[in-house]
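ugh ok fine here u go
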Amino acid sequence: MSGSRDRYRELFERLARRREGAFVPFVVLGDPSPEISWRILETLVAAGADALELGLPFSDPIADGARVQAAGQRALAQGVKLGDCLELLTRLRAEHPDLPVGLLTYANLVVHRGAQPFYRDVATAGVDSVLVADVPLNESGPFDAAARSAEVQHVFLVAPNSSDEVLQRIAERDAGYTYCLARGGVTGERTDLSGQARTLLQRVRRAQAPPPLLGFGISTPEHVRHALAMGARGAISGSAVVRRIEEHLGHPELLRERLKSFVRDMKSATALP
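structure:
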């Protein structure tokens, strides 16, 4: 099970020794098909991704922008189910035993399977953390309990308007990282990062919450450098990755080259001065 070791802690310790931040790409499992999805995962890791954040295809992903929603729809159109995603995750863990792997999902998918079976199954597949995007901290009790039982880390989103009380409560939990929103709204590429992100990162660090990773709008190497300069321990990029998949549907080899180049450029920006 994934709980037998803390891959996130090992990662952050390793990166600190190398004076680097983390680059974490996000993709939707099964997009645009299970086999191409596997090739995408392998490409992201080979190109230098420090960890992966992976979405489960869902019909109503309210935190996701149009591009990530379309990725989920492509996977669903291929008939991708949770079982297919678990197979990909199991294969990923077997090939990459040290890689931190997180899931970003929604409450319906957890409740439909049952919280205890859901967390047990993803733990068996090698998942380290789960973030349930539409479950706020005050309603997270059953999810948190099931995650703890399966030794899966329960990650939370924090936004610029999150209260100090919320940050303190998150700091008391054993999570691999804190997902910090660079801005409000849904996922999507942006030209610059909100000034509110710096204040949020400072507050997360003061609360001694788990290491902050900044997401929502991270799409260029400059964004990565800016996130690290503001105090993030790394950056998560989703829409920019998914855009490259969307732009090269039907051309898997070209897609792999584009993804490889993007990840290498983003990872190179994690070097600390």
